[in-house]
Amino acid sequence: MTDVPGGCLCGALRYRVTLPSLWCAFCHCGMCRKAHGASPVAWFGVPRDRFAWIASPDEHLGRYASSPGATRSFCRRCGSPLLFESERWADQVHVALATLDGTLDRPPSAHVFFDDRAGWATPTDDLPRLGGPDGTTPIAPPDGSGRSR
Ligand SMILES: [Zn+2]
Ligand SMILES: [Zn+2]
Predict the structure, then answer these.
(1) Interval 89-101: pLDDT, tens
(2) Ligand 1 centre distance from Cα of residue 18 (Å)
(3) Which ligand has an atom closest to residue 6 CA?
């Protein structure tokens, strides 16, 4: 098993994850878009017991309840968004891949919440595009075939 560190822009918040990860995907949902100021957001999941804070001082660790049962954690000093935790995946921690200071054991494998995407953020890769109410149901094929919303 391999430990990989990560953290926020200013360094106040530091964590480590123990690989292997569970999954990695690009999220196109509107909430990630606002929270990160970018879209899509690459996330990976690890079992809860494989995520550990190295440094998480109370004055810098911010938590925002972005929807019922879901929390986004960020640095109060520099603003970096780091984690997403939800009752829907209660045994996992979702980590913003861009905050990892090392190499994950897998690349992003899909686009989720694809039908919530911004018009300026259409990917050009061939990864599966998933959407629907749960964000993970197969929708338009990679070639598009005229679907729009
Ligand atoms: Zn910071
Ligand atoms: Zn999202």
Answers:
(1) 999 999 999 999 9
(2) 22
(3) 1
Q: Is 23 helix (H, G, I), strand (E, B) or coil?
A: strand
The ligand placed nearest to the CA atom of residue 10 is 1
| 133 CB-contact burial (10 Å; exposed 0-12 / middle 13-18 / buried 19+) | exposed
**Minimal CA–CA distance to 97: which of 31, 30, 46?**
46
Q: What is the pLDDT of residues 36-81, one digit of tens each?
A: 999 999 999 999 999 999 999 999 999 999 999 999 999 999 999 9
- 68, 69, 72, 73 alpha-carbon torsion, rounded to 10°: 130
**DSSP reduced 3-state for 35:** helix
Q: How far is the CA of 36 from the centre of ligand 1 (A)?
A: 14
Give the CATH number of domain 3-138; options: 3.10.20.90, 3.90.1150.10, 2.30.30.90, 2.170.150.70.
Answer: 2.170.150.70
Q: How far is the CA of 81 from the centre of ligand 1 (A)?
A: 9
Q: Indicate the domain borders of the chain.
A: 3-138
